Structures are given as C-alpha cells and as structure tokens.
Amino acid sequence: MLPLLCILLFTATTTFSLKPMESPDKSEKLSKKRKNLKKRSSESSISKQKTNNYILPEHPFISAAESQNHLIMTSYLRNPYFNPNIYNKLHNTAPHYSALVKDYVGLQLLLNDPRIDFSKRNIEQKTARELIKGDDANDIEMRHKIFARVTLDIVTKQECTSIQSKYSGFISPTTLGDTIQSIKTKIIATEMKNHAEDLPTSACFPDYATDEFMEKKVYFHITDTTQ
C-alpha cells in the first residue's frame, strides 16, 4: 500500500512541476499589449468622432468665385437646376468673393444671371457692393451696377411674394407681364437714399434686364423655396 501512495505522490508532484508558468517578462509584455489595444481602440473612437463632425469644404462654385475661375463659374451657371445663391458659414455668396477680389469680369458674369440675388448680406450684414474698396473708375462703376441690381432684386422679391402663394405650376402671360411692368415702374419711380458719395440718388433699371431676363427672374423667385 505504501509503495502505491509513494508512486501517486511522485506523479502529482511531477505533473505540477511540468505545468508552464508565466515569466515576469512575458507577463509584462501581455500587459503592454493590452494597453496598446486599449489605446488603439480609443484613437479609433476619436477618429470616428472627427469624421462624423467633419465640415464639408467650401462649395466649388464659391471657391471658383474667390479664385476668379470663370470657367467653373460658367459651368455651374449653365445648370438650370443649380441655385447660385448658396453661401458658406460666413454667409458669403459668390458675389461677395468676386467683389472682395475685385473680379469685375466675374461680377458681370454673375450680374447677367437673373437667378442671383445681390441683396444677400453676409454675417457682417454687408452686400457685395460694400466689399468693393477704392475710388478708381472701375470701382465706382461696379458699385453703381451692383447698387442698381440690389434694388432690382429687392423689388422683384417684394412683387413676387404676392403671387408666390398662388402659384401652382402656371402663371398667365398677363400676370407675368403686369408683374414685370410693376417692378420696372417701382424701380424707376422709387428715390433711393444716398449711402455714399458715389451712389446715384435713384436706382436705374439695368440695361441687361431684358424681358426674357425678367421672365426668368420672376419664375425663379416664385418657385424658389430656399428664400
């Protein structure tokens, strides 16, 4: 019996001694590995949060105005479904940036589009006209042009408000003609107060505002739901 107990005791002792044990170095490595995994997981979470809160870059149309890229500006303006009155977080529109860099070719391009509203104000409550600095002939001429356009845009919006609520996909030629005539009459008859020495005492009706131009402008205003 005693020899049998000795054999069992020897076997148990041998089995226990053969069990692998973690060395201090290996334990430390595992601890570092766990820390690295936690760090990566945390960084991944932060990265995802930054991605979710990422602000889209400037719209290409606004960037084109700022960089005086008339090709891209024209490309967007040729799209009948594009609303060129988009603005950035500072509420600056394409006319604001064209005025800021004194791109008078770009500004004329924008003036020729009936959809663009030059009466839009940025976060500092300034229109594009107020961003044009200088006293040379080109500066004064462009300020005059924008001043007249701002008046046209304001009066057009006022006149279109009354028919916008009634618009259901069709406007009669008579209503359209009467609206355009009313806009012209108000612009010519309305005396504008001077805000600076280079501004006219009254805003004239722009020469580029043909009947076709005004028809497109009225249609755009009564169908635009973003105003």
Q: Over the alpha carbons, how many angstroms does the gyration radius reach?
A: 35 Å
The end-to-end span amounts to 102 Å
Indicate the multimeric state.
Answer: single chain
- Percent strand: under 5%
Order of secondary-structure elements: HHHHHHHHH
Low-confidence stretches: 14-21, 41-56
Q: Identify the CATH class.
A: Mainly Alpha
* CATH-derived architecture: Alpha Horseshoe
How would you classify the helix and strand content by structural class?
Answer: mainly alpha
Examine the coordinates and then state which fold CATH places here, giving the name of the CATH topology. Serine Threonine Protein Phosphatase 5, Tetratricopeptide repeat
Instruction: Give the biggest sheet.
Output: none
The count of helical stretches stands at 9
Average residue-wise pLDDT: 79
Helix content: 55-70%
Number of strands: 0
What is the overall silhouette? globular
Domains (count): 1
